[in-house]
Amino acid sequence: MNFLAHIYLSGNNDFIKIGNFMADTIRGNQYENYPLMIQKGIVLHRAIDTFTDAHPVFRQSTKRLHANYHHYSGVIVDVFYDHFLAKNWASYSDENLEDYVQNFYNSMLDNRAILSEKAQQILPYMIEQNWLVSYKSIDGIERILAQMDKRIKYDSKMHHSVTELKAFYIEFEIEFTQFFQELQAFSSQKLIEL
C-alpha cells in the first residue's frame, strides 16, 4: 500500500501514523531508536507490506501489469489502490479527505524533529503538491507516478501504467475493495497486538 492507506490503517494515534508514514526510510532495527508509538507505526507498516505482497488479490492486480512494468508492478498497484481509497474515502471515514489529510500534514509539521532525515526532505514536496488528496484523480495518480519515475535510476515508465488503470478500471477497483476489507481487519488486529 502507498502513503494514504498506511496512514489510514494506523488508527487515530498521530505517532503511529507518523511511524507508518516514514517506515520505508528506516532500515533494519534502527526503528528501536524512536519513541515507542513511532516504533509501533514502523512495525505496523512492515506487517502491512508483508500481508499485501503475499495476498492473492493484490498479486492478481500486479499480474495485469507485469509484462510492461516487471518488478515495479507492485509499486504501481500500491498507488492505484491509494487512488481507490481516496476516491471512495466517504465509504471508509466520516471525516472528509481534505480535513483528514490537513490534520496529518499538521501533525507531521508539529513533530518534524522526530522525523527521519529522508521523511523531513519529502514532507515539503508532499504538502506543496498535496500528494494524498491528489490520489483522488487519475491525473493526480499519473503525476505521482511520473515523480516516482524521476527518482528511479532506471527508466521504469511507471506513469504510462495509467493506460492500464483506465483500461481495467473496474477490475482494479473490485480487487481493491475486496483486498482492502481484509487488510483493514488484519491491520486492526495487528494494532491490538502491538
Task: Characterise the protein shown here.
The protein is built from 11 helices and no strands. The model has no long low-confidence stretch (mean pLDDT 93). The relative contact order is 0.16. By secondary structure, it is an all-alpha fold.
Give a concise summary.
By secondary structure, the chain is mainly α. It is built from 11 helices and no strands. The protein has helices at residues 3-8, 14-22, 36-54, 56-69, 73-87, 97-110, 117-128, 131-134, 138-151, 162-167, 169-193.
Class from helix and strand fractions: mainly alpha
- In the predicted model, the low-confidence regions spanning at least 5 consecutive residues are none
Kindly report the average pLDDT value: 93
For the secondary structure, the number of strands is 0
Task: Categorize the overall geometry.
Answer: globular
What's the structural blueprint in terms of helices and strands?
Layout: H1 3-8, H2 14-22, H3 36-54, H4 56-69, H5 73-87, H6 97-110, H7 117-128, H8 131-134, H9 138-151, H10 162-167, H11 169-193
Notable traits:
mainly alpha, 0% strand, 194 residues
